[in-house]
């Protein structure tokens, strides 16, 4: 890959938001060896949630997908705040997605693809990752989506 992750973000017309401060007793990023664990990120933009509510009720799958993409941008913002830039990222190893939804909602994968597709767009093959996506009854601040990451760095 000749382009940097920052170049790929710019080519997509995207920029990283300011990394969100923790809202409870945890650190945004924990490091062990060459792995970084990024705490769950919400779809915040300018300190405000892009949407609130549940998939299958008041949030469409398309809006949920956009929220998942924004969650991944916030993951990248946490990585940049920790590392200085994204160049040390070797691989996105795993994404864990939590989708606040009704009990009959079944399009979890479609929503989570917002984050997964952006990971591949920014990191190429190094963005392909293992993934879990789980439907839950609620999330902090009534967010519809929350995503955490496991990232390998150089």
From TrEMBL:
Coiled-coil residues: none
UniProt domain Endoribonuclease L-PSP/chorismate mutase-like: residue ranges: 7-143
Designated name of the protein: Endoribonuclease L-PSP/chorismate mutase-like domain-containing protein
